[in-house]
Specification:
The chain is an all-alpha fold. The protein is 74% helix and 0% strand. The chain folds into two domains: 58 residues, Orthogonal Bundle (Arc Repressor Mutant, subunit A); 154 residues, Tetracycline Repressor, domain 2, CATH 1.10.357.
Amino acid sequence: MPVSQEKNTVEGDAGPVRERLLDTAERLFSEHGFEGTSVRELASAAGCNIASVNYYFGSKEKLYEEIFRRHLIPMRNARIASIDRVMTESSGRPKLEDLLQSFANAFIEPLADETKAARFMKLMGREMVDSHLPSDVFAKEMAIPTLKAIQIALLKACPGLDESRAVLVAYSIIGQLLHAVHIRPMFEQACDAEVPKYELSRIIDHIVAFSAAAIRAYAEGRNE
């Protein structure tokens, strides 16, 4: 059956069909993996015919890639917007703690929402073990633009910071934030009463204070 004649036709109902395919594919890929999910299965689960996948995405591989893009691009934009906002409000000379706090909140927010992020985080875990994305997707869509933005802002917020170290500082901050997101569920599920359990907001405050102190020490040469 042609795509235009299927239930929920392309004409006049294109948006819902495309989104339904993305939602269904994300669920199936996260549960069964890329190889474990066939085009026939995901089209059937989405209430579409097989031709819909090629019509909207060109291939199963491109559909898989688009699932990541629809998460990565909004996250990247939110993080860069948080940096731009602080830079604008401070006329280009932000307080270091304000910059770090704004970036940390924007970084954590989409990952901390368990109902929205759990499936995508599971999908990312599968991708790390068994990759099916083009090798440059994460770098082009997320890492490079975000690192450039935070690196420039750090140099403005702490003028004494050596440019060669700014990117290492950015890696350190991002690493702490990612660890906070991933380790929190383990702490919350621990039976041992002695395992510390902190609110995510408190962990963010600690990362901000800890990082700000370390960055200033770098800038003042106290680590040498």
